TrEMBL record:
InterPro entries linked: Claudin, PMP22/EMP/MP20/Claudin
Transmembrane region(s): 12-30, 88-111, 123-145, 173-197
Species this protein is from: Gouania willdenowi (Blunt-snouted clingfish)
Keywords: Cell junction, Cell membrane, Membrane, Tight junction, Transmembrane, Transmembrane helix
Keyword Lyase set for record: no
Record's protein name: Claudin-34
Family annotation (PANTHER family): CLAUDIN (PTHR12002)
Length: 249
């Protein structure tokens, strides 16, 4: 029961980590990393285009489709370096976040239900915490980099088929960066919660005679009670005289 009470914070951290992973996955798929405002509204009739890391989109009444999108390849030579880096790092962040959730679920299962061998519980909690921290780091690097490019109003030399000018009138940070920042903060919190779990750092060590969770000693005492009593007598224990009186009578 004491162990279950201690793991409630870690269970909450697992839930937060799972929600953060969903937000990270959403961030990678959103198009609104940059809001690209244009002066010529003959094609981009809404006056604003969404530039993501995987594609660009805008609304237009001058073209057959209302919403027009162009895919962005990681090998495109016109891209600034922060966009292909974001493609790679966000993919890795999604994979690491999934691994962190799996590791966290296994750690919580061991903390709540496993009573035989807890020597590997530290590895599971530390691994889950490190994966969460790595996910947050992998997300923060492209988010901060692209946010800096937006604030500096950096240009992108789009090819003609994108129907977008190389230099916009102005840029704004899109909602994807905000969602990603929130996900990264949640991942950091989850990782710290798992790494700061006191039980795995102070209680779980090599088999300790004073460890209440040491099931091997309990099993030995039940199967060989005489050996256990001899061991206690060797430490200076004194027999209860009442037992000897009953044996003599």
């Amino acid at each position: 029961m004491v162990l279950e009470v201690r793991t409630h914070c870690q269970f909450l951290g697992l839930i937060v980590g799972f929600l953060a992973w969903i937000l990270t996955l959403t961030t990678a798929g959103l198009n609104e990393w940059r809001l690209w405002y244009v002066s010529d509204k003959s094609v981009v009739t809404s006056g604003v285009a969404w530039v993501g890391i995987w594609r660009t989109c805008f609304y237009s009444h001058a073209m057959p489709k209302i919403e027009n999108c162009q895919s962005i390849s990681v090998s495109a030579d016109f891209l600034p370096v922060e966009i292909p880096v974001a493609q790679v790092l966000m993919t890795l962040a999604v994979i690491c976040g999934l691994g962190g959730n799996i590791g966290g679920a296994l750690a919580m299962r061991m903390a709540y239900f496993s009573v035989d061998d807890r020597r590997s519980i530290r590895l599971h909690f530390v691994l889950a915490g490190l994966l969460y921290l790595l996910t947050a780091t992998l997300s923060l690097v492209p988010l901060v980099w692209n946010m800096t490019s937006v604030l500096n109003n950096s240009t992108i030399d789009f090819p003609p088929e994108f129907q977008l000018p190389a230099a916009p009138v102005s840029q704004k940070i899109g909602s994807a960066i905000g969602v990603g920042m929130m996900a990264s903060i949640m991942m950091l919190l989850s990782g710290m919660v798992f790494l700061c779990y006191q039980y795995v750092w102070h209680t779980v060590r090599s088999e300790s005679p004073t460890d209440p969770m040491n099931s091997s000693l309990v099993a030995t005492a039940l199967s060989h009670p005489s050996e256990t009593f001899k061991h206690d007598r060797s430490r200076g224990g004194v027999d209860n005289p009442a037992f000897h009186i009953e044996e003599i009578s």
